[in-house]
Amino acid sequence: MERTLASAPVIEFRDVAYVLPNGKPLLLELNLEVQRGETLVLLGRSGSGKTTTLKLINRLLAPSGGEVRVNGSSTVEANVIRLRRSIGYVIQDVGLFPHFTVERNIGLVPRIEGWEAPRIHNRVEELLQLVGLEAKIGERYPHQLSGGQRQRVGVARALAADPAILLMDEPFGALDALTRDELQREFLSLKQRLSKTVVFVTHDLREALRLGSRIALMEAGRLVTVLPPEGFVRSDDRLVAAYVRAFADGCELVAQRGSL
């Protein structure tokens, strides 16, 4: 039966491999689907292939084998500039332009897209409010902000042109525990309000349980399993069980998901 647009996955990996020029494989036989409106968390230790998987979605990398499809089209056949502008991207070190004000950083993609200045200004103010920052922050430069503020600006910039897909690579990993907790709460609130399709990379099971609709566990370039948080903590898979044991409060977090 042919899938309807609403039921078709937004992102598909079909037997995807990624091999470095020296022959070292970083991904092997990856088959994975991301559904519209969900937050799929890519979980795994360093070197498991999480960030490689993420970069294949917006074609910062091209697959060595297989096919990555976004909205039904192969990423290698798409216009790469249009593809990247249609996908928000948030990374751990934010990557803000230091010589641009916050307003110019957030408004960069809308400006490239040809938006008029008043529309950009209004959008920046709207997004600053959305991520919990005051409008006057727009006049500052990145070095004048705290780490948490810079990360909020990074999220706002990724949302500026209202992309349907958001990629987040360890976005809160470098923050202190309290700021990380605040931004996780903010993310959950944004997720409810904006209905984006999100692929979120982390090595922290607690974060995965808290934020994810489903968790895709990766190990040594291969997909181990994909489960909802409640199923993940109850899985009898050896590697999944090892993660749950390492984060002993995981079950408690699952129970709290509705109130976080």
Q: Helix coverage percent of residues? A: 25-40%
Strand order of the largest sheet: 6-7-8-3-9-10
> What is the string of SSEs from the N terminus onward?
EEEHEEHEHHHHEHEHEEHHH
Number of strands: 10
The count of helical stretches stands at 11
**Terminus-to-terminus distance:** 39 Å
Radius of gyration: 18 Å
* Global shape: globular
The average pLDDT score comes to 89
Reported for the largest beta sheet, the result is: 6 strands, mixed
Supply the key terms.
alpha/beta, six-stranded mixed sheet, 11 helices
What's the topology here?
Blueprint: E1 11-19, E2 25-34, E3 39-43, H1 50-57, E4 65-70, E5 73-74, H2 80-85, E6 87-91, H3 102-106, H4 108-112, H5 117-130, H6 147-159, E7 165-169, H7 177-194, E8 197-202, H8 205-211, E9 214-219, E10 222-227, H9 229-232, H10 238-246, H11 250-256
Parallel strand pairs: 3-8, 3-9, 6-7, 7-8
Antiparallel strand pairs: 1-2, 1-4, 4-5, 9-10
Explain what the structure shows:
This protein has about 260 residues and is of the alpha/beta class. It has helices spanning about 50-55, 80-85, 100-105, 110, 115-130, 145-160, 175-195, 205-210, 230, 240-245, 250-255, and strands spanning about 10-20, 25-35, 40-45, 65-70, 75, 85-90, 165-170, 195-200, 215-220, 220-225. The strands form two sheets. A six-stranded mixed beta sheet has the order 6-7-8-3-9-10, with helices on both faces. Strand 7 (about 165-170), helix 7 (about 175-195) and strand 8 (about 195-200) form a beta-alpha-beta unit. It is globular, with a radius of gyration of 18 Å. About 35% of the residues are buried.
